[in-house]
Amino acid sequence: MSENKGLGLFGLLSIPFALLGVAALAGAGFAYVQYSNFMQRLDPGAQEVYTQAFERFMRDLDPASAMVKQVRVQDGLTPDEVVESLKSLAVQHNLFFAGEQPFYKQVSAVTGMPYRYVAFYSFCDARVGAQMADYNNIYTAFMPCRIALVQDADGTLWLQMMELDLLIHGGKPLPADLKANAIRVRDALNTLIEGAAKGEF
Questions:
Q1: Which of 39, 125, 133, 179 has a beta carbon 3.0–4.6 Å from 174's, enabling a disulfide?
Q2: Is 158 helix (H, G, I), strand (E, B) or coil?
Q3: DSSP labels for 29-86?
Q4: Per-residue tens of pLDDT for the chain, all 201 residues
Q5: Going edge to edge, which strands form the sheet with 118-124?
Q6: How many CA atoms lie within 13 A of 159 on its CB side?
Q7: Residues 163/186, Cβ–Cβ less than 8 Å
Q8: Rounded-to-integer distance, Cα 137 and Cα 119, Å
């Protein structure tokens, strides 16, 4: 008799936990469906792009690392040689050289002290830029495309630019012609920093 009561009490106590388990499974199923529906609204490359960005973030625990492409410049190349390479490759890929900002000179002027080489070089494809602006004005905040040439503490030179895949694949699909042109500009810029890092012309 007492054994039956114990089992009955145990059975009663197990009901809320069973209900919680069912609710948890239902919640997980709902979340999965919502996630699937959300991902279907994004560009097909979005998941890979965000996975790679997350890996870069976890490597350095710095959000800037998640958003930046970085290439080490070959030893022996001077900043001037790298810049000339960038400009030469830009012409070959129909990118307009839109200007430069020698940040290290500005720092030296303000502080009166020499500063390591840090400079920014801007490149543009006006037709594609206009397409981006007409699609969404917010994209003008990323124009023109900028490449940084940076000397680190030990004297090593690096070329750095924004990881454009986040803009191209990170949201809802871009119109086909705009996406194709944006990919072309991305590939050209990748060629610039990878080629200039080796001193190519």
A1: 179
A2: strand
A3: HHHHHHHHHHHHTS-TTHHHHHHHHHHHHHHHT-HHHHHEEEEEPPTT--HHHHHHHH
A4: 445 554 455 555 566 655 566 667 666 666 766 767 888 999 999 999 999 999 999 999 999 999 999 999 999 999 999 999 999 999 999 999 999 999 999 999 999 999 999 999 999 999 999 999 999 999 999 999 999 999 999 999 999 999 999 999 999 999 999 999 999 999 999 999 999 999 999
A5: 68-72, 157-162, 145-151, 118-124, 96-101
A6: 28
A7: no
A8: 27
